[in-house]
Write a structure and sequence with these properties.
Elements lengths: L5 H22 L3 H20 L3 H21 L1 H13 L21 H16 L4 E5 L6 H4 L3 E6 L2 H8 L9 E5 L2 E7 L15 H12 L3 E5 L6 E5 L2 E3 L4 H32 L1
Parallel strand pairs: 1-3
Antiparallel strand pairs: 1-5, 2-4, 3-4, 5-6, 6-7
Helix pairs in contact: 5-7, 5-9
Length: about 270
């Protein structure tokens, strides 16, 4: 009777985990229909093998290598999205400190939080559209280059003036790094998420799109309704009031602070052991 090693159990668990996550990812993409089509083809090939249909099996063997390349080409957008999602996972963040500067208050100060909230609420009252992207651990330099450099301290007055109607900088997004506004009029990628409401326009899809590709948080003020929304990790929280928006901003601010404390504690323990 064959013996079962602990590595065999580990392999089964790893494979089950990978298969489950791959299927869960495919189900929410355009690849789901293609996957069901492949299953039908595999069933057809299995039937051909059972009944020893040599001609069909020869054709399958001949086109197999080409089919693999064709699948990669067809699924290129989905595969890219999957790799980007994998890249956003902070597997090593607990052990390797971020190179981005932080303060005792986090990646940005309480003053910046209050200024963003104040500007967003003021713009919502007069229905001034706004798109504010707050950078975290992943660099937004690629998107900053599409806009105009600003490099100014975050203030509600400046944000309101940037998004004021008919001003040169009101189109596009503002990117905030730490306590400074780095760029304005930046172009952002649009989300392809079919679950987003049809009533949402380009501004909201851009806000969700950048949050899907990076770990940034985006504040969106609707020009049509004046409602304030927040996009984070591809999820859109709508109709936020001042307290709700402040809570969203403080959640990523405090998250960074907690991570920093954990790293300092772990580093201190390592020194004690040494």
């Amino acid at each position: 009777m064959p013996t079962i090693r602990w590595t065999d159990i580990a392999e089964i668990l790893i494979i089950a985990f990978l298969v489950y996550n791959i299927l869960a990812w495919i189900k929410d993409t355009k690849a789901w229909s293609l996957f069901k089509g492949l299953v039908v083809i595999l069933i057809f090939i299995l039937v051909a093998a059972i009944f020893n249909m040599t001609t069909i099996l020869w054709i399958v063997k001949s086109v197999f290598s080409i089919a693999v390349i064709a699948i990669v080409v067809v699924l290129q957008p989905e595969l890219r999205e999957a790799l980007e999602t994998l890249g956003r996972k902070n597997f090593f963040s607990a052990w390797f400190p971020s190179i981005k500067p932080t303060t005792d208050e986090g990646i940005f100060s309480d003053h910046t939080v209050n200024e963003i909230v104040r500007a967003s609420i003021e713009m919502s009252k007069v229905r001034t559209g706004a798109l504010i992207v707050i950078e975290q651990t992943q660099s937004l330099a690629e998107y900053e280059r599409t806009g105009i450099d600003i490099d100014a301290v975050v203030s509600s007055q400046l944000l309101i003036n940037i998004f004021e109607h008919n001003t040169p900088l009101h189109d596009g997004a503002v990117i905030i790094h730490g306590d400074r506004i780095t760029s304005a009029t930046c172009y952002l990628p649009l989300s392809d998420n079919r679950k987003l409401s049809k009533e949402l326009g380009t501004r909201h899809r851009a806000g969700v799109g950048i949050s899907e590709l990076t770990d940034s948080l985006t504040v969106i003020v609707s020009e049509e309704t004046g409602h304030v929304s927040c996009a984070y990790h591809g999820e859109l929280a709508r109709d936020l009031n001042a307290d709700g928006l402040k809570e969203k901003l403080q959640s990523i601010q405090n998250k960074k602070t907690e991570d920093t404390k954990k790293r300092k504690t772990r580093k201190g323990r390592s020194k004690d052991v040494a």
